[in-house]
């Protein structure tokens, strides 16, 4: 062959963050150190982390997925993933609040709303004056979103909306809801998406769920009784709701994957400290080999699944559909978070299980990552169908 190695174009896979994202990550770490010191109290008292969210808004952490024309920072999904891992490693209740606001509300409005709608709602959302909530699930439509029953009937220049949404993150604190409702008989094409404001007559907050973890993040029922929704609050057009919901869930799964990465990292840090502290009088390590093996396995998986998440986020930032990749990331990271949290509790023994360390809270917080934005088995189906399709 006449060509040589030096003459051949070299392709490089870049696994490093840009200098801009490295600086952003340091800013977020500084935020977590200064503003998330009450994470244990939020959990113990089931108190919404209002001050922490307000501080995040001041730093621009509620605008990462919004275009600059509408007051956002336009940093994108990869930046959001980096940010959310850092926040969730310290306080998962704060992390999920910021995740839903950015990935399920702001991202959706930015992609699917018209210019007038964006200029109406983004000024309040990007500053944190308003928080957003995503209202898809119902009592009879959890994993099967197309089974929803909430109705929106067109009457003149309004839609009259009736129904109830369940398991809504930030439900009691949000001022703006993205609501999916049935506008026609077709199971899929009969679903539409709307923006509903909290202040409108007929919009109410129902029961608040008592939860195992994420106790500082309120999960509530949203009740809609003869709510008159102006026609100009329809997102895109009638019948696009199901498409919008599924597209948005790709971004939501990246948020949950980043949440799981943060939980796993915090658990691994606990294990590292425990193992490093086990030495004899001469400073030689005495930790058991099984403990070291467990630590090595989960730490290796953390690095692997972080890159899996970053790949999906990069694809989404490039405008490439990433349903399969996002489901892979969410499925793998959520199982890792639970495995790492269980290992930390087991390794720390009574101290880990008692709540004397953060391990017990991580174990409780990790559980929801296998349920939010689609249960693990649903993710496996999404991956299988994506690969086979």
Give the arrangement of secondary structure elements.
Blueprint (H helix, E strand, L loop, with lengths): L18 H17 L3 H7 L4 H9 L17 H13 L3 H21 L2 H11 L6 E4 L15 E5 L2 E12 L6 E7 L8 E7 L5 E6 L10 E12 L3 E2 L5 H36 L12 H29 L5 H26 L1 H5 L4 H9 L8 H13 L1
Parallel strand pairs: 1-4
Antiparallel strand pairs: 2-3, 3-7, 4-5, 5-8, 6-7
Helix pairs in contact: 1-4, 4-5, 4-7, 4-8, 5-6, 5-7, 7-8, 7-9, 7-11, 8-9, 9-11, 9-12
Describe what is shown at a glance:
The chain has 389 residues and is of the alpha+beta class.
What's the shape? globular
| Total helical segments | 12
Q: Identify the strand order in the major beta sheet.
A: 1-4-5-8
Q: C-alpha Rg, in Å?
A: 22 Å
The residue-averaged pLDDT reads 95
Distance between the termini: 39 Å
Number of strands: 8
Describe the main β-sheet briefly: 4 strands, mixed
Q: Give the proportion of residues in helices.
A: 40-55%
Please trace the helix and strand order, writing H or E for each element: HHHHHHEEEEEEEEHHHHHH
Enumerate the spans where pLDDT stays under 50 for 5 or more consecutive residues.
Answer: none
Structural class: alpha+beta
Percent strand? 5-15%
């Amino acid at each position: 062959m006449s060509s040589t190695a030096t003459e051949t174009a070299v392709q490089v896979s870049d696994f490093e963050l840009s200098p801009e994202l490295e600086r952003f990550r340091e800013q977020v770490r500084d935020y977590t150190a200064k503003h998330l010191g009450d994470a244990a109290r939020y959990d113990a008292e089931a108190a919404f982390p209002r001050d922490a969210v307000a501080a995040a808004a001041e730093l621009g952490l509620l605008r990462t997925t919004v275009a600059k024309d509408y007051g956002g920072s336009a940093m994108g999904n990869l930046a959001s993933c980096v940010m959310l891992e850092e926040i969730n490693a310290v306080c998962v209740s704060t992390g999920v609040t910021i995740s839903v606001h950015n990935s399920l509300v702001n991202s959706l409005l930015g992609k699917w709303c018209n210019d007038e709608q964006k200029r109406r709602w983004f000024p309040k959302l990007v500053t944190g004056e308003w928080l957003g909530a995503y209202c898809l699930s119902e009592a009879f439509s959890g994993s099967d979103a197309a089974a929803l029953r909430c109705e929106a009937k067109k009457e003149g220049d309004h839609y009259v909306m009736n129904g109830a949404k369940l398991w809504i993150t930030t439900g009691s604190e949000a001022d703006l809801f993205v609501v999916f409702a049935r506008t026609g008989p077709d199971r899929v094409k009969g679903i539409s998406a709307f923006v509903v404001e909290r202040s409108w007559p007929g919009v109410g907050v129902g029961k608040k769920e008592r939860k195992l973890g994420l106790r500082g993040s309120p999960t509530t029922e949203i009740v809609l009784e003869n709510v008159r929704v102006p026609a100009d609050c329809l997102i895109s057009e009638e019948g696009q709701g199901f498409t919008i919901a599924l597209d948005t869930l790709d971004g939501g799964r990246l948020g949950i994957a980043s949440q799981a990465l943060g939980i796993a990292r915090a658990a691994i840090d606990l294990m590292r400290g425990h193992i490093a502290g086990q030495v004899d009088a001469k400073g030689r390590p005495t930790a058991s080999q099984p403990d070291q093996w467990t630590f090595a396995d989960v730490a290796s998986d953390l690095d692997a699944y972080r890159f899996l998440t970053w790949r999906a986020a990069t694809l989404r930032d490039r405008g490439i559909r990433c349903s399969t990749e996002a489901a892979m990331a969410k499925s793998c990271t959520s199982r890792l978070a639970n495995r790492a949290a269980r290992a930390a509790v087991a390794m720390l023994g009574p101290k880990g299980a008692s709540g004397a360390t953060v391990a017990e809270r991580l174990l409780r917080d990790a559980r929801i990552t296998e349920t939010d934005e689609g249960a693990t088995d649903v993710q496996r189906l999404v991956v299988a169908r994506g690969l086979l399709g």
